[in-house]
Write a structure and sequence with these properties.
alpha+beta, 12 strands, ten-stranded mixed sheet
Length: 385
């Protein structure tokens, strides 16, 4: 009998033990893969949204923290504290384009949806939007232009009516898909947003694009002098948000690592039990010429097989869970980046790395039981009752 057949027979000898041992390592690896997959999608979405923002600088309420910066990227509701007078002084600075935005929320059929008040012509030019159906609105109109995803989700078309703060507004057009949070947003003229949401002559933030990026620091100082507000560069905002995401991701991975560690102890227990139950078999193997390293190899291979099978099952389970979990965790400003990651993405590095990690953990867990089994003497092994 070859070592491979012997290992297979030993693993499948106790079906119940096999199932429960595999369940332990599968759940641990599935948790690990789920957090890695969601974390990777989150970072990709953050970079994509930062790029889609189209701004070199963002003027935010003074004293705003990273959460407000996340809200800028996701289009989530932000307090309106920057006055139109300050916006005018920012616009007066030469060499930049400034577009003010009011970000609020409304609900359609009891489902929340972001609403952004924007200067119509300026924002269309700033973002490079294209209209997919219907027409674009003008600043003086009381109308809505919907993002592609929002239109699909709520079955909106040109002529549909949406109620915002008690006002029935017609949908004038649907934007072409942009691949950013704009797809899930309803846009209305800036003045109308200020009226409906009672923000007065104030906006939530100002997106700024500079003509000469080498003078970014100079523009930051000029904007701070023109407005009582905070100014953050696109790179600073990206770094800040990614830093928070990284911290959260590491915490989640540590939680998953605890599950993997618990599974490792399950493998240790399984292999120690197997070594005890098979003492007589070990003695017979030694009597017919098996060396200590052969017995050590058999037990270590059994542990590795548990790790490999559990790793494969865990990767499949983790990817499926991350695909189904993504839409469920995208209900707030921080996790809404994951909205685009609901599809199952097969990352070869993630798959191979997770399986290798599972095998490595299982091999490490099997070292002590394999050593215990290998150091048995033929006499005490054969005489075992």
């Amino acid at each position: 009998m070859t070592i491979g057949k012997l290992v297979f027979r030993n693993i499948t000898r106790r079906r119940g033990r096999l199932v429960f041992t595999l369940l332990g390592i599968t759940i641990g690896i599935a948790s690990f893969v789920t957090f890695l997959a969601l974390g990777g999608s989150l970072k990709d979405e953050i970079r994509r949204e930062a790029s889609a923002l189209g701004a070199n600088l963002v003027v935010t309420p003074k004293g705003s923290c990273a959460y407000e910066q996340v809200s800028v990227l996701t289009g989530d509701q932000l307090p309106a504290t920057i006055t139109m007078e300050e916006v005018g002084r920012i616009k007066a600075i030469g060499g930049l384009t400034a577009v003010p935005v009011v970000t609020e929320k409304t609900a359609i059929r009891n489902r929340p949806v972001p609403v952004a008040g924007v200067p119509a012509a300026d924002m269309k030019s700033f973002k490079g939007w294209e209209v997919g159906s219907g027409a674009y609105f003008a600043d003086g109109e009381r109308a809505i232009v919907a993002g592609a995803t929002a239109a699909e989700l709520f079955k909106l078309a040109p002529g549909s009516i949406v109620t915002v703060r008690g006002q029935e507004l017609p949908v004038k057009g649907i934007l072409k898909e942009t691949g950013s949070k704009d797809d899930s947003t309803l846009f209305i003229p800036l003045a109308l947003a200020q009226e409906l949401f009672k923000t007065g002559e104030k906006v939530s933030f100002v997106a700024v694009r500079v003509a000469d990026v080498s003078r970014t620091d100079e523009y930051v100082e000029k904007i701070k002098g023109a407005a009582n507000a905070g100014v953050v560069t696109d790179r600073q905002m990206l770094k800040s948000v990614l830093g928070i995401v990284g911290t959260v991701n590491v915490t989640l991975q540590l939680i998953a690592a605890v599950a993997v560690l618990a599974a490792a102890f399950g493998i240790v227990n399984t292999m120690l039990t197997a070594a005890y139950e098979r003492r007589r078999e070990i003695g017979i193997m030694q009597a017919i010429g098996a060396r200590q390293r052969d017995i050590f190899a058999v037990f270590l291979l059994e542990s590795g097989c548990y790790g490999f099978m559990g790793g494969v099952l865990g990767v499949v389970g983790g990817l499926l869970v991350s695909a189904f979990a993504a839409p469920l965790v995208s209900q707030n400003a921080f996790t809404s980046f994951v909205k685009g990651s609901g599809s199952l993405t097969l990352d070869p590095k993630l798959i191979l790395g997770s399986i290798l990690f599972s095998v490595a953990v299982a091999l490490a867990a099997g070292l002590y039981p394999a050593w215990r089994a290998a150091r048995l003497t033929p006499v005490e092994a054969i005489n075992h009752e």
